[in-house]
Write a structure and sequence with these properties.
Blueprint lengths: L5 H19 L10 H19 L7 H12 L8 H37 L6 E2 L5 E6 L13 E10 L4 E4 H4 L3 E4 L5 H7 L7 E6 L20 E10 L5
Antiparallel strand pairs: 1-2, 2-6, 3-4, 3-5, 3-7, 6-7
Helix pairs in contact: 1-2, 1-3
Length: 238
Amino acid sequence: MFKKNKIAAVLGSAALVSTVILSGCGEKEVELKTNSDKVSYGIGYNVGSGMRQEGLEEMNVAAIAMGLQDALADKERRLSMEELTAAFNEVRAIQDDKMKALNDENLRLGQEFLKKNGEREGVTVLESGLQYEVLKSGEEGAAQPEVSDMVTTHYHGTLVDGTVFDSSVDRGQPATFPVGGVIKGWIEALQMMKVGDKWKLYVPANLAYGTQSPSPKIPANSALIFEVELLSIKGKES
């Protein structure tokens, strides 16, 4: 849920990936026989995946290997600190510009979706901007959760384009959590629901994760859609 410094993340990963890069230098294929080989490959793959997710897939692997070799051999740096700082700052600025443009586009798309969705019959728009529609109602008089309660739900979460990012339904395992420990849109909706209700929530970015991203599956400034079924409230099962 916290914004990462992309360049710092790459720097922190460089030492871990050194074994993989160096062992592959000058070879077309590295044999993965021993546990050390396999763990080294796994580390390298994870680091590479992280770089790709952060938009750093264009980094020069051969140059990374050269830097690692020089450092491990205790050779003098081929570039001055001034040159390195300038290069890192430029890459960081480019990445920040790309991320800002993407975030702004996500926000625009979410706002457009919610505007049209709020006009549909059966959709209720709350003052906060949260939207919901009732898919199924529980029994009259069933218990309702308070912000301090623990609840168990089934849910299915998607982006506005239908991409699934999380689903207890798909996992076949309900989720239990404190009402006050989730995103604002859920906190507001859960306290309005009663056990047995199943609602579809349309959550604006500011009531979800806002400018932060909890995972690569949820871009920053995304409006989110959840189907939520309230199964039980701890201590209020009856």
